[in-house]
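Quick one, T. Sequence first:
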Amino acid sequence: MERKVSSFVYWAPRVASILFIIFLSLFSLDVISPELSLSQILLGLLMHNIPVFVLIVVLIISWKYEIVGGIVYIGAGLLYIGMTFIQAEIPWYIALSWSMTIALPAIIIGILFMMNWRKKRNRN
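Structure tokens:
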């Protein structure tokens, strides 16, 4: 039983992170428009995918150092919530529910990375 839990705690944040990165990259597809040139589309895709590239680097580092993934994913989720509240001109409860589609998965992934880091630290 311990082996299954250990395996889940190890793989869950990594797989969830990959799925989250793919989910975020889908938002960049709104750049594609028939009236734009190829260079404008490529530049738009590059600009929209900067957070995706950052999260790919974080995932690579977090694969070995889980504490990095925990801190970055939790911090990114909280930062997104804060930015949504500052920029949104809508009631707070709508801004909160809106930001949870991005922030909640990021925070959960960060918690899973922290759990894995703590488990590894307690084992040593």
